[in-house]
Amino acid sequence: MSNSIRLGGLFRTARQWFTKTPERALDQAYEAALKIQQIEVDYFDGNPISADYGDYGQSAQAYFETELKKYLNLIRMRMGEFRSSSSIFRVDNERVMEVQLSEHVDDDYALDLIDRPAAFFRKLRVIDDVLARYADAPGSAKADSTLATTSNPVPNPTSNRALKRSEIVKDSSLREVARTPQADAAAPSNEGLSAQSSVLPRSILRTVDRIRQDLDPEAEDQVVRNFRSSKTKTTMALRFILFLIIVPLITQQVSKNFIVGPVVNYVRDSTNAEVFLNMEMEEEALHELQQFEERLRFEVLIGKAPPLNELRIEEQVREKAFEIEEAYRQRSSDAVKNVFSDMIAALAFGLLLSACGRQVAALKGFMDEIVYGLSDSAKAFIIILFTDMFVGFHSPHGWEVLLEGLSRHLGFSANHNFIFLFIATFPVILDTVFKYWIFRYLNRISPSAVATYKNMNE
């Protein structure tokens, strides 16, 4: 009995070591890709490792090229190992994660386990980007081409650009977004037969895959586990959104009414502070008083109000002046309170973001899943809506109203020269950044959405 148990343990250990071969090979290839990226950032300002981007001598340049060749060869070997081993071993990540989740009650640790499939996909993306940058390197073009067209789910740069992000999100093994590729362990995605290249059409393979999953006795448990994982992350993201909205608002109101407010009122009352903070407020008060006096005289003249002598009219105007003074004194105090209470609210918002890193990662994954899960026409619609709203033809009017309202809220005089200068520069900068984002990132992850956006924008 003991011998059979010992043999069973050895068999399980050996099986675990072999089934982790794809993960181990991918980790080593990913580390080599990070080494290349680190050299690019440290010595070539983020550019490819080449004599065109660095002013180094022959010895230093030869060293960099040797390191590049070494890491590229390591990537090719490990990805070949990953390709051959992953075609044999199929790791059920969701089941492994569920077992690990059942052994830990910490939600933060559970979030790390749920994020592992996305880390796996992100490592593949990093490796493909590195190989694409050095596709013309000596001895690498052919190898990279062979690597990019294998039967494993390793997208080459061309297919990666043509692949829709919405299709990637629909895969349950690639839904989550990893926080940092260095911190998360790699986890091979739970691919079926349809993910592997074959002489048969993919539709037939997907049908066989679906039948196999339907006949799997643990398929129902797998669906429940996937639903619970998605529900946990969605609930965490929505709860954190509410915290980001409610906490700063409550902080602003509490600090304004109970901390900043009494201090400001005491200081202004003890120093006999000015009623008006700026000339604009004073002009508004005088205009309001003038309108009241003219309205009163007009109503007396048309007989709508009882006849009043000049002394009576002056007395009512004086009473109105005191009311206006008190109103604008309170408005000035509120403006001073808003400055300090808004600073405290912004500080609370920043502390909330810095202290809740895991919740921020969950929120980012939730938003990415929503945005990239939209159809191409929906993405193009949202892009056009936001660009026309903030950088479009009618956006200057909105920016002007927004800046004037902010100035009024903080008690500053609305400087129209500054507002016009801001409108003439900031939307242009924002439009340039947004176009660069479309060209640099969106065109790579969802080229069909960019094409739809261009057609709709025309």
TrEMBL record:
Membrane protein topology class: Multi-pass membrane protein
GO molecular function (one): proton transmembrane transporter activity
Region (Disordered): 142-164
Annotated Polar residues bias: 146-161
Gene Ontology CC entries for this record: plasma membrane
Stretches that traverse the bilayer: 339-357, 378-397, 417-438
UniProt feature coiled coil, ranges: none
InterPro entries found in the cross-reference section: CemA
The entry's keywords: Cell inner membrane, Cell membrane, Hydrogen ion transport, Ion transport, Membrane, Transmembrane, Transmembrane helix, Transport
Domain of life (superkingdom): Bacteria
Pfam family, one: CemA
Subcellular location, record wording: Cell inner membrane; Membrane
Family: Belongs to the CemA family.
Annotated function: Required for H(+) efflux immediately after light irradiation to form a rapid H(+) concentration gradient across the thylakoid membranes. Together with PxcL, contributes to transient H(+) uptake following dark to light transition.
Name of the protein this chain belongs to: Proton extrusion protein PxcA
Organism: Vasconcelosia minhoensis LEGE 07310
Organismal lineage: Bacteria, Bacillati, Cyanobacteriota, Cyanophyceae, Nodosilineales
UniProt gene name: pxcA
